[in-house]
């Protein structure tokens, strides 16, 4: 009886893994069509640590704890957010 239970569990796990792989392949298609800027002009002395993109803006996180939100079409700074730390 135990042999049949282990075999059934193995088959169920394999089927579930195949379903998960199929869902990842069909639900997450290649998203290489997101337009990224060729170059970004930042204030002098700025070192980038992270980058993210929105519909008509992109944000650059700098090493001096600032987030620069730039316009996607012009590249100008829309907003600067200073990150403060609570110690």
List the helices and strands and how they pair.
Layout: H1 2-27, E1 48-53, E2 57-62, E3 66-71, E4 77-82
Antiparallel strand pairs: 1-2, 2-3, 3-4
Structure explained in plain terms:
By secondary structure, this protein is an alpha+beta fold. The protein has a single domain (2-82), classed as Beta Barrel (Thrombin, subunit H), CATH 2.40.10. It has one helix at residues 2-27, and strands at residues 48-53, 57-62, 66-71, 77-82. A four-stranded antiparallel sheet has the order 1-2-3-4, with no helix packed on it. A hairpin with a 3-residue loop joins strand 2 and strand 3 (66-71). The longest helix has 26 residues, at 2-27.
How is this structure best summarized?
This protein has one domain (2-82): Beta Barrel (Thrombin, subunit H), CATH 2.40.10.
